[in-house]
Amino acid sequence: MSLCPSFQTFKPYQDPKILPKTQAFSRHCIPLQWNRKPQLAGETPCVVITSREGGVGKTTTTANVGLSLACLGFSVVAIDADVGLRNLDLLLGLESRVNYTVVEVLNGDCRLDQALVRDKRWSNFELLCISKPRSKLPIGFGGKALVWLVDALKSREEGSPDFIL
């Protein structure tokens, strides 16, 4: 069964001058095979969801994409990099399980695997928070620390996740 809408069952408004009937939606759709997990080629993709504006859905998008990939069988690590306004753990219902953050990992107070919070509903989905709510980051924290964090996640003993969000 294909998830792509066929032209016979799904007929949105279309102007024949703009989109001829021969160019139906099925040309762009790739059917998913639910009996096996798709294979990824190359190294772990790191997907960054960002915007300069607040309130546009970055956290919601990260949660939805992450859990959707976990539902498809991929291992996912979602990083909540919103400094001082951590909401991804609240959205996922994991706020009571966050004990350590990346700041403690960088300070040497805990290991990276201790800071990762595994979702009980999806064992292949993990959350990593940058800081605690309303906390100040050290002056040296910046892009290099995030690059180190992603590299550390890719070289974990447990294996690299399929996606880092």
UniProtKB/TrEMBL annotation:
Keywords (A to Z) from UniProt: ATP-binding, Nucleotide-binding
One term under GO cellular component: cytosol
Question: Per the record's keyword annotation, is Translocase included, yes or no?
Answer: no
Instruction: Cite the InterPro entries for this sequence.
Output: CobQ/CobB/MinD/ParA_Nub-bd_dom (IPR002586), P-loop_NTPase (IPR027417), ParA/MinD_ATPase (IPR050625)
Segments forming domain CobQ/CobB/MinD/ParA nucleotide binding: 47-98
Q: Name one Pfam family in it.
A: CbiA
- Asked whether the UniProt record includes ATP-binding among its keywords, one would answer yes
Question: Which GO MF terms does the UniProt record name?
Answer: ATP binding; ATP hydrolysis activity
Biological-process GO terms, alphabetical: negative regulation of cell division
PANTHER family the record matches? SEPTUM SITE-DETERMINING PROTEIN MIND HOMOLOG, CHLOROPLASTIC, SEPTUM SITE-DETERMINING PROTEIN MIND HOMOLOG, CHLOROPLASTIC-RELATED
> What's the protein here called?
CobQ/CobB/MinD/ParA nucleotide binding domain-containing protein
Which organism's genome codes for this protein? Rubroshorea leprosula
